[in-house]
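Re: weekly structure request thread

Next one in the queue (174 aa):
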Amino acid sequence: DRATGRSDLDEIIGHHLERAYGYRTELAPAGEAEVALAGRATTWLVRAGPALLGPSPFAVRLAPILLASSGGLALAPAARTLAGDRAARYAALIFSVMPLAAAGLVIATPDAPLLAALAWTLFAVVRALGAAAGSATATRWWLVAGLAIGLAMTSKFTGVFAPIVGRRVRADAG
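Done, posted below.
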C-alpha cells in the first residue's frame, strides 16, 4: 500500500524475522558461543582505554565514547552524498541523541560498536556506489564495507540483519 509505505513483502519479511527469532529462543537459550560472541567487542573496547591510559573510569569509557561518536562522523558524509548538507546535519544530530547511541557513550554495551560499525558500513557502501563500477577505488570501498559489516556482526548478533534490510531498501529504491 503506497499510502502507508508498507507492502505485502514488508509484512512477510517482518513475520518471518519474528518467527525465526521466536524459533531460535524456543530451541535453546543462548549458548556459551553466542554469549562469548556478544561480549567480545565490548570486552575489547573496555580493555582498549586502560591499555593506553592506565586503569581509570575515564579510560574504561574512552573507547566506547570515541567509537559511538564516530558513527555520527560516518553518517554525515554519507547523508551529504545522498541528500545534501541539511540531511548530513540531521543525520549526525539524530544519531548522536538517539538513546541507544547516547547510552553507548556512557556504558559499554555491544550496541555502541554495532551502531558505529553499521554507520561505517553505510559510509563505505555510499562511497563504493559513487566510484566507477569495477574500479580499484570501488573495490577498496566494498572491502571496507565488508570489514565494517563483519565487525557489526561480531559485536552483536542482530548485525546479521543489516544486509537483509539494506537489500530491501535498495529494492524499493530501484
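The chain has a mean pLDDT of 76. DSSP finds eight helices and no strands in the chain.
Next request, please.
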